[in-house]
Amino acid sequence: MIQDPIAIVILLGSFVVLILMRTPIAFALGFSSIFTALYGDIDLMIIAQRMVNGMESIPLIAIPFFILAGQIMSEGQIAERLVNLASLFVGQIRGGLAMINCVDSMFFGGISGSAVADVSSLGSVMIPAMEKKGYTRQFAIALTVTTAVQAVLIPPSHNMIIYSMASGGTSIGRLFLAGALPGILLGLSLMVTSYILAVKYDFPREKWPGWKKAVTIFFEGFLSLGVAILIMGGIISGIFTASESAAVAVIYAFFLTFFLYRDIPLIRFGKILKDSVNTVSMVFLLIATSTAFAWIMTSQQVPQAIAGWLLSLSTNKYAILTLVNIFLLFVGMVMDMAPAIVICTPILLPVMKSIGIDPVHFGVILMFNLGIGLCTPPVGNALFVGCAVGKSTIEEVMPSLLICYVPMVVILFIITFFPEIAMLLPYWIMK
């Protein structure tokens, strides 16, 4: 039972009003928490303490390093090398460029861990290239945006670290492993969709570059993928913690970009640091304010009330999972990923545990749903970036985007109802 319904009305009502007034979501979360605290006669120092506590989690140290490593490699020509590497594997299939778009997002997701970075880096390469080959600009944008969702599933995903903190310390290594197969399965489903369209509209294959050039492309692409290999290998083997592996990844990315490939001059490192600090600041501000917001909801027993309501609707495990997916898809449409993770985890995780869902499996379900939200208006950051890079409007892209939504939602429910897919690698590698 909610302790004070008026407090919740003030909390949620002021948040919605601020969002409608186009207030940045971090500030909307913070101000609505303050308004509720003032109504409930809660010392504002407690709100400040909760915000600070939300950022003091040790695993969160990895996030700045992961962001910096991804930023370093995004500034270089890593995206082009990964596109060339993907071309070796799938370029000769009908609709080769569309296939390449799916596979290079799989590769780049294992480096950046960010869907928005994926779209901005690969989109500038793939969207014009696909348009030249006869694909519509709108389909090229839609495919680039939706394949980027792999980045929030395939390790290293810094959003998995936020979930680990919000869930009370779920193993980051197990979360990373659990996201790998669902991310790959998502990519394969979009490849199947692309192939069907390629056959229907007779999209071309890509030319084989020749064995000599293929060896060079493979070597350079493999070195670029070394960041992901280093991170996962270090965590799984126990050599590194998640935070240590992230720091090592920065060193590797720095050496690869500035000394081995020499894609950009060292003087650009200052700008990279500045951009990384901007991103990290936004992420941590969102974590801080959403932690205060989530604390007020918890203190008002909102999670217990929602859990009780969901369980009262049905005792069927699959019905509850379906309702949770629908709810999370809606949340992803209206809220950024970091605050959505911090707020939704304490509300829904108890429900998931009560029906026998492993916290690691739920982490994947949560990431997948909110990842789809990145491609969905009105708050789809990946979609906005894709439209900006591709020089198109959301209205023009939506028909093509709807085609790509179908395999995404299908794979989401497969992952939800068949936990063995997500849990295979964690059980096999980290028993």
Please give a structural write-up:
The two termini are 39 Å apart. The chain is 80% helix and 0% strand. By secondary structure, it is mainly α. The chain is globular, with a radius of gyration of 22 Å. Helix 5 (78-90) packs across helix 6, helix 7 packs parallel to helix 20 and helix 8 (137-147) packs parallel to helix 21 (394-417).
Brief digest:
The protein is an all-alpha fold.
Mean pLDDT: 87
Main sheet?
A: none
Low-confidence stretches: none
* Helix content percent band: over 70%
How many individual domains? 1
Question: How large, in whole angstroms, is the Cα Rg?
Answer: 22 Å
Order of helices and strands: HHHHHHHHHHHHHHHHHHHHHH
User: Separation of termini?
Assistant: 39 Å
What assembly state would you assign to the polypeptide chains in this entry? Answer: single chain
Shape annotation:
globular
**Beta strand count:** 0
β content, as a range? under 5%
Number of helices: 22
